[in-house]
Write a structure and sequence with these properties.
Layout lengths: L8 E7 L4 E6 L5 E6 L6 E4 L7 E6 L6 E5 L4 E5 L7 E5 L4 E7 L2 E6 L4 E6 L4 H5 L3 E4 L37 E3 L8 E3 L4 E3 L4 E3 L3
Antiparallel strand pairs: 1-2, 2-3, 3-4, 5-6, 6-7, 7-8, 9-10, 10-11, 11-12, 13-14, 15-16
Membrane topology: Single-pass type I membrane protein
Keywords: Signal
Pfam family, one: EGF_LRP2
Length: about 200
């Protein structure tokens, strides 16, 4: 999707209902960015003045808020999907390798402490003062953490989905849905050309 202006991507997340792709970049100008699923309408929603070293990024399926861990700013933050001012969710977290959400609970892994923690994902004066709950300990080389739950699988529609009336994909290869429209965007894999009726491939 992108070959320019992307230096050191560290994490990527998809909002299937909102139809956006989000990613974090740890380059010389660190940022949180988003684009349509087909790679168009790319924009920076968090600039270098608010993010330093993002290590993981997720999208809350319910609120569509974007959460990320920042190793240099020692915390977990969130922001509305269309941008705005970042909000501190958890302070004093310097080694968060991965974060995950379910309901109003947030989980994260800490490489230095070798633990998995849980705390509220809704920042307020009370939650910021409470110590997080240790879920698991003595775990070496921790990476990402994922919580599997039906709450993280919201229902939605897509012009690319196969239904009883449409028994095959509307696109011969890649099909993308974009915000605000029920018309799909079709694309081809690298090295091939598409049309409505046939496929031409380029072989070396």
């Amino acid at each position: 999707l992108f070959t320019t202006k992307t230096e050191t991507p560290s994490s990527i997340a998809v909002d299937p209902v909102g139809r956006y792709l989000y990613w974090a970049d740890q380059g010389q100008k660190p940022s949180i960015q988003r684009a349509f699923l087909d790679g168009t309408r790319r924009e920076v929603i968090v600039g270098a003045e608010h993010v330093s070293e993002p290590t993981d990024l997720i999208v809350d399926a319910a609120s569509r808020m974007v959460y990320w861990a920042d190793a240099k700013k020692d915390g977990i933050y969130r922001i509305r999907p269309n941008g705005g001012a970042p909000e501190l969710v958890r302070p004093d977290i310097a080694s968060a390798a991965g974060i995950s959400l379910v309901g109003q609970q947030m989980f994260w892994t800490d490489n230095r402490l070798e633990k998995v923690f849980r705390a509220s994902s809704k920042p307020n004066q009370t939650s910021l003062l409470l110590s997080p709950t240790t879920v698991a300990a003595a775990l070496k080389d921790l990476g990402d953490v994922v919580v599997f739950s039906s709450e993280n699988q919201p229902k939605g529609s897509s012009p690319c989905q196969i239904t009883d009336n449409l028994r095959k994909s509307p696109c011969p290869q890649l099909c993308f849905s974009s915000p605000g429209t029920q018309s799909p965007t079709c694309a081809c894999a690298r090295g091939s050309l598409c049309s409505e009726c046939f496929l031409i491939t380029n072989q070396k």
